[in-house]
Amino acid sequence: MTIRKENSRQIDLKYHIKQYRNPYETTKQITSFLNKKINLKFKNFLDLGSGSGANLFYLKKKFKIADSFGVDNQPTLIKLAKKMMKNKNIKNIRFYLGNIEKLNKSANILKNKIDVVTILQVLSILDGYKKVINSAIKFNPKFIAVSSLFWDGYLDFKIRVDFLKKNKGGIVTSRYYNIYSIYKYLEYMKSKGYKKNYVKKLKFMKNLKLKDKKIMGSYTSNLNGKKVLITGPLIQSWYFIISKK
Asked: Does the model's pTM come out above 0.85?
């Protein structure tokens, strides 16, 4: 199944720039959990699906990470990331355009030089996670950390959302919102030599509102006494997993 990629016109640059000014609560939760399990100071990071680089910027500012790298397949976001690093006068974080599921050349160059590979909010929009995990393993990092939609059971859900044109036939673009079995993911990581795994379910503290709930925007709601994040018709179950070799 082929999913159409977003072009530069469909990328909301304001959304990405906003993350530099106001890091999301999920970013803070993820990095705090990461720092509890790993002393992040002076660690070398590789962020796969780095977008505009806001996550690496936050890690640099908050935890003083060392030389680090980001890879994304969107030229517009890589250009923005480089611009933001220049504006912030940060010289030891570099960004590259590439397919995160196929990083053979760069893996040879950076092998054994990366301490932590992060893959944040990326796996669910891919047609499976094994290719990008295998790509990360090529760098031989001690830690691989992911945030994604997971299911607490032995079920995978393949969800494709088609964004349709109004009053006309055809699809504007399509995106995955895949949900993976957390148990099968952990089994796969252990089979690859990452025997120790730390799991945290993300909590949504702030209230998010959305005026038009017929679109694929996100908002919070109470369900059985717990705050949940809803996007379109989907109740999102976000987990953060750190896998250690």
From this structure: yes
